[in-house]
Amino acid sequence: MPIVPIVVYRFLVIGITTLAVAMPLSLVIYQSFLTAPFFDHSAKASFAAYSFVFADDDFWQAFWTTITIAGGMAAIAVPLGALLAFLMVRTDVPGKRYLEPLLLIPIFVSAVVIAFGYVVAVGPVGIFSTMAKDLLGFVPWNLYSLFSLIVIAGLTHVPHVYLYSAAALRGLSTDLEEAARVSGANPFQVAINVSLPMILPAILFAGVLVFFLGFELFGLPLVLGDPQDVLVLSTYLYKLTNKLGVPSYQLMAVVVVVIIAVTAPLVFMQRLLLRQAQRYVSVRGKGLKTQPLRLHGWRWFAFAAITLWLIITVVVPLFGITLRSFVVSWGEGVKLLDVLTLDHYRELLDYPNVIRGIVNTFGIGVIGGAIAVACYTAIALAVHRWNSGWTRLVDYIVMVPRAMPGLIAGLALLWVFLFVPFLSPLRSTMVSIWLAYTIVWLAYGMRLVSGTLLQVGPELEEAARVSGASDLRVKRDVTLPLIKYGMLASWLLIFLIFVREYSTGIYLLGPGTEVIGSLLVSLWGTGAIDLVSALSVVNVVMIGAGLAVAIRLGVRLHG
């Protein structure tokens, strides 16, 4: 008798999860083989869309530019992130306790906000650019170039490599490092010849991740690449409608299929590399008790290098966008005290859709994040301690949305709402945004909850079963109460992710479904820099408040 309910629960959860993931993907593939939008009665099966896209020079320009940017990002982020992890985990660099939360800011701040910040800070007439021109007579950098885009993208993705490298180093025995120290190796030699080679699988995993993130890059190339017409696949997709002047769903679907065809193998390669990394660092010794490697005179040099990276990637863009939100205008010869104002924030009150966007963003972070964590928990509980092939199937299913960048997932969900009649009324509600966010971050949310479940020993669950409790009751009365703090931490992290998200809701943006991220992209397209700067600061404050609460409660920001 008790077996039936848990079996029904498990297969119900698996069925709903599979449907939520497979429907958008299937519709995209179906649309790519039509001659017109699927709701057009004249649509016929054809390869015409593939022929058009593959014959388009802009597509190939975008494709190879994306490859170049992704490779450049990885070339910059991987060595810097690995070295940063070594300095923070294995050495006595000053201020580690305070530096680590700051290192993760680029992960949680929206990329589109960072891009806007760079424009107003170091753009042609940016705040720092005008200062440099006053001092030097010229601006010694060019923000609007492919090189600058690659450098900024690489530097802002250093934290992704840092997280996985640091986690691997913390779980690694330090016996060989100590032997190298005794043999007279200096800190640099220990890092290059001993520590980093021992966590190579984790570094490779992070490298594949950064290369993959290069394919979903949207905010930075949209803002920094537009003046020079630097196209990547995501911005090419975004601008594709302009080619025909009508919604060219079939062409957009082809681009989506191409992106998924490239990113899906990368996602599953990450999975294999992560397994290897976990096995590689599973031998734990006395590493956590080892004295940190002394850098002596180099410790302040290392601190200065980390601080410089923070200034370039965090301080410059955030300071730029914040200052711009408090001035009427900026340019050569402008004196700061003469242009200070609060008018931009007052202007926000004059735009109901902007106020609604702020409220919606907070609501989807708080309420939507809580419901999303409940969904992730339901899926995780269904496969928890279930030795079955179905568990592996669920593992692969939740990875699939990760191969769809947010922009693509939002577009696919839009088509689902248009394709399924009874779902159409939901398209103009916040349910559409919530569903898109929840599916896009399915793998991340599952990782958070599953990690919490793995910390629960099986003894109490076994004791409840021996007492006659059914599997479902064990999960309800024993497992759930034991992971409530882990679920709270997961909710805080999902809140941060949902509040910063910008690309997923672009195609779902409409009256009543405005969110800050999508509004920023829309407002930037109209040239409303004053509103963009003020709204960006509101978004950063919202994220900062969430980060402060998470840190105060001791939440590990990387899950």
What's the gist of this structure?
By secondary structure, this protein is an all-alpha fold. Helices cover 72% and strands 0% of the residues.
Global structural class: mainly alpha
- Inertia-based shape: globular
In this structure, how is the largest beta sheet organized? none
State the CATH class of the largest domain: Mainly Alpha
From N to C, what is the helix and strand string? Answer: HHHHHHHHHHHHHHHHHHHHHHHHHHHHH
How is this structure best described in words?
This protein has 559 residues and is an all-alpha fold. The chain folds into two domains: 1-31 and 342-559, MetI-like (MetI-like fold), CATH 1.10.3720; 52-109 and 144-214 and 234-316, Orthogonal Bundle (MetI-like fold), CATH 1.10.3720.10. The chain contains 29 helices and no strands. It has helices at residues 3-32, 48-54, 57-90, 96-103, 105-108, 111-122, 127-136, 146-156, 158-170, 175-182, 187-198, 200-215, 219-224, 233-239, 241-244, 249-280, 298-324, 336-339, 343-348, 352-383, 389-399, 406-419, 430-440, 442-454, 459-466, 471-482, 484-500, 516-525, 529-552. Helix 1 crosses helix 16 and helix 3 (57-90) runs antiparallel to helix 12 (200-215). The longest helix is centred in the N-terminal third of the chain and has 34 residues, at 57-90. It is globular and about 80 Å long. It starts with a helix and ends in a 7-residue tail after the last helix. 46% of the residues are buried.
